[in-house]
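Subject: Re: docking follow-up (zinc ion)

Dear J.,

Thanks for your patience while I sorted out the input files. As discussed at Tuesday's group meeting, I've set up the holo structure prediction with zinc ion included as the bound ligand rather than trying to dock it afterwards. The sequence and the ligand SMILES I used are pasted below, so you can double-check that they match what you have on your end before we go further.
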Amino acid sequence: MPNSRRKLGQYRRKSGSAKPWQRLTTPLSSDYYVGVNGPPSQRPPVPSAKDRAKQLAVQLRAAVAEAKAAEARARRLGEQVMQALAEVRQEAEAVRTGVEYPSGRYECASCRQSVLFTHPSTELSPCFNCGARNYRGPKPKVTHIAPPTPSRYPSGMYECTKCHIRAAFVEGVDVLPDCEFCGAKQLKQVG
Ligand SMILES: [Zn+2]
Ligand SMILES: [Zn+2]
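The structure tokens for the complex came back this morning:
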């Protein structure tokens, strides 16, 4: 605003010193009308509806491209999460299942060397003769730890039946949350 006011002052000073005929023929600076209420013909041109529609169409195309890229990224992440969830289950299973080899005499399955283990252990050390780890001997004790009480909705991949957006739960939940995308209460386990 101060800028256009300064320009206006300049114009007035200039026209004030001009002769009357000059005043009539001197064209008005277009700056004079920028930001002030000049006649509509002198205002900067308003883009036509067609121009605006063209610009919006370009923006729409960009937004669709972004959405497409985001969807591909989400699909890739979904596959990775499924893989990771499978590993989580294996890990949990391994923690629940413990193996203990009792003390006693074992025979190396490769070189038939007899080895005496004096303490029970979770892992037999390699045969001192040939380095193999396969033995014949007392049966290992397998201990199963009871799994914790399962959640109502176990860990896994869920999909909204309304908008088909997926969500992964690494831990089970008792109350299903709403869909993070559309807000519907329609998540269903899919993997
Ligand atoms: Zn051996
Ligand atoms: Zn949804």
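A couple of observations from a first look. Residues 8-15 have pLDDT under 50 and may be disordered. The CA atoms of residues 13 and 146 lie 95 Å apart.

Let me know if you'd like me to rerun anything.

Best regards,
T.
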